[in-house]
Amino acid sequence: MFINTEPLYSSMIDKIKERVSKLSRPPKLAVVTCQPDPSTLNYLKSQERQAKRLGIEFAVYESSKASELKLLLSRLSADISIDGILLTHPLPKEVSEIEVASLISLEKDVEGRSPLSLGNIMYDHPVFPPCTAEAVMRIINYVTNPSGKKVTVIGRSVTVGKPLTMLLLQKGVDATVTVCHSRTQNIQEITTNSDIVVVAIGKAKAYNKEYFNPGTIVIDVGINVSNGEILGDVDPSVSEICDLTPVPGGVGRITTLILMEHTVQAAELNKFNSNTNK
Ligand SMILES: NC(=O)c1ccc[n+]([C@@H]2O[C@H](COP(=O)([O-])OP(=O)(O)OC[C@H]3O[C@@H](n4cnc5c(N)ncnc54)[C@H](OP(=O)(O)O)[C@@H]3O)[C@@H](O)[C@H]2O)c1
After folding, report:
1. Which of 178, 223, 260 to mutate to test the pocket of ligand 1 (most atoms within 8 A of CB)?
2. Which pick of 3, 71, 188, 278 has the fewest CB atoms within 10 Å?
3. Domains of the chain with CATH codes
């Protein structure tokens, strides 16, 4: 069966709208792009549509040179009218991601990308966890209680796999986690011995029914564009034996809402707004 994330999605929308209505001014998200490719532009369009629907200001800043980018991020971090900053990929080749991500202040790092944000997860004290990892957690918690369950995360990126692993290991969440990557041997042996499998590898339909036991919860993070079609990393036929998140309509749209939620939270915490909240 496909997991129906619609009720989760709708309740998140309602809660965000309510929180926005209590602020004295619209939350403002600054989106920084550097030579955006077509998929980034597409991603930004859908973020912008969602932000508008929720009453969140969405301002795009473009910068193509490393020196400009650093100045821009420092300026936005200091600008009291900006609540959240999103730095999109790809970055220019000469740019060190860790260096530029460090320039985003912790209170505005709504994407959870800075070394400080990521480090806080290690202490079980995330401020803004990376949005996709948090979206996966939200969906897992929506369908089951992960405590004590065997969860396999396939993919070890900074965006998804690594932070998700730390969130699953948090005290109170208490999953038992196995992480796989491109060099892992016998992945099938691991996935067929799991209660929950999260696939985030960026390879269309790479995992079919042979990788899962009936009844496994499968969260498909993949977004692969092929001939204009959006495909996940998991073959949709897996839904015949497992509970599978659809692509599109699964993790992606919850991730967008998490970004919006973080922006609202940043606006609520912005000390230059708090005195004027309704
Ligand atoms: N739904 C959303 O909101 C959202 C957000 C972000 C990303 N995504 C999608 O999620 C996917 C992953 O994104 P990402 O940024 O994490 O990608 P990434 O940085 O390219 O990382 C991919 C990871 O998958 C591993 N991998 C690749 N092929 C594999 C295989 N055949 N078996 C096992 N592991 C394999 C890689 O292993 P190595 O480390 O060994 O190379 C790497 O750790 C992409 O499709 C992306 O578009 C979706």
Report:
1. 223
2. 278
3. 25-108 (3.40.50.10860), 131-251 (3.40.50.720)
